[in-house]
Amino acid sequence: MTAINDLTVLCPPPAHTPPVDWAAVERTLGMRLPGDYKELASSYGPGAFCGFIHLYHPLGFTEWVNLTGPMPARIRGQLQQERGRAGYPVPYDPRDLFAMGVTDNGEYLFWVGGPETESADWHIAVNEARGPGWYHFEGNLTRFLFEVLSGHTKIPLFPDGLLYEGVSFSPASAPRHQLRPPAPDRIIAPQAVRLWARANGYQVPDHGRIPAQITNAWEENNPT
């Protein structure tokens, strides 16, 4: 059996997942993605394993978990600053690391592979959230997940109770403001929003445009 078959037997994916235009994703990233990841992301969609391991996905609802968002570059920049610092050595060239996941504790998951390495040969690394530790896995992401979720491989950086409640995958949910259906016929009175905002501790200007986050908060608390 292949790694994806092993994983889907161990942890069944959702019945329906949104399609991904992988050609467009790879053009945006400027690189070819590992085939196992594309199969994995297409099978499961955005979400988390055991409520703990969140893989970055091209359809992630926020920049924090979107594969094409700013997080991979930000994390690489942080590693470049930290490399060589006393107490926090980075055992890889940050240019060879691409962040593609995060845990609830703050550990990042990386592909390890330079520009001259075929993506099918990329391995996995995990860094400690609040310390200098790193863990290296000689295999692809799907095999890594199967080994961890089956209990065959224990990651010292992960909590002992990771599998206490069994193995599961939870599809991600859109933020509330994205889930709210549009209401084109609704008229929002700016003065009503300003009065509500001030009564609830928001700083809002007397004239001009009301910040979108305040309007969204008013709509959530004043549904039609």
Structure description:
This protein is α+β, with helices and mostly antiparallel strands. The protein contains 8 helices and 7 strands, in the order αααββαββββαβααα. Strands 6-5-4-3-2-1-7 form a 7-stranded antiparallel β-sheet, with helices on both faces. It is globular. The N and C termini lie far apart (53 Å). About 3% of the residues have low confidence.
List its salient traits.
13% strand, single chain, 8 helices, 32% helix, alpha+beta, globular, 224 residues, 7 strands
In summary, what is this structure?
The chain has 224 residues and is an alpha+beta fold. It is built from eight helices and seven strands; from the N terminus they run H-H-H-E-E-H-E-E-E-E-H-E-H-H-H. It has helices spanning 3-10, 22-29, 35-44, 71-82, 141-149, 176-179, 190-199, 212-221; strands at residues 47-49, 53-55, 97-103, 108-112, 123-127, 134-137, 169-171.
Distance between the termini: 53 Å
Provide the gyration radius in Å.
21 Å
Low-confidence stretches: 179-185
Q: Which band does the percent of strand residues land in?
A: 5-15%
